[in-house]
Amino acid sequence: xxxxxxxxxxxxxxxxxxxxxxxxxxxxxxxxxxxxxxxxxxxxxxxxxxxxxxxxxxxxxxxxxxxxxxxxxxxxxxxxxxxxxxxxxxxxxxxxxxxxxxxxxxxxxxxxxxxxxxxxxxxxxxxxxxxxxxxxxxxxxxxxxxxxxxxxxxxxxxxxxxxxxxxxxxxxxxxxxxxxxxxxxxxxxxxxxxxxxxxxxxxxxxxxxxxxxxxxxxxxxxxxxxxxxxxxxxxxxxxxx
Length: 241
Fold this sequence. Notes:
mainly beta; 14-stranded antiparallel barrel; about 65% strand
C-alpha cells in the first residue's frame, strides 16, 4: 500500500483535495492538465500528474496518470480511467485505477481499485452516490454527495464519505467565480482538513495554485496548468471535483 495517503486534486480544481471521484460524470468539455504537488512538508515527497477528459451530452471519458516519488526510497506509478453514460437527468459510470508500487532494490507490487456510481441533476440541483472497491483487501468506501449551482459564479456542494474501520468524513466545497479568477475552498471533518485553491482562466488556457492543511502531517501544496475547450462553463460538475 502507499506509504502515506496522497491527495491529488484535478488540475482544474486546485482547491478540492478531499472527496474522491464519482465516475458518473457529465461534462461538455475537452480538457488537458498537468500538475505538480508536494503532499508532505519537510520531506522530498513529490507527485507529477497528468489528466484529460472529454465529454458531451451523452458520453464522458476521463484518464489520469500520477508519478509519486519519495526521495530514492519509494516510487509509485498510478493510472486511472472513468467512463459514463447519461440520459435526461441521470448519469451512470464506472472506473478504476491501477498502481505499481516500487521500493528500489527491494520489491514491487500492483494494487487496483474499482469504482461504480450514479448521479442526477435537475436544473440547479444535483447529487449522486458511488462506491470504491479496492483490491488486495484494502478498505472499501461509499460516498454520497449533493450540490447546488444557482449560477456560473457560485457553486456549493457537500459530501459524506463512509470508510471501513475509520470515522465517516463530511466535506463541504465552495467555488466562487470572479471574472478571470475562481476561488475554491473545501473543509472536511473530522480533522479539520482545509483546502484552498485559486484558478486563473484566459480563453482556453488556465493555471492554478492550491494548498491543503490537515491536522496530521499531510500538508500539501500544488501548481497546475490546463487547456480546455467547452461550449459552456461547467467546472463544478456532478462529482463536485
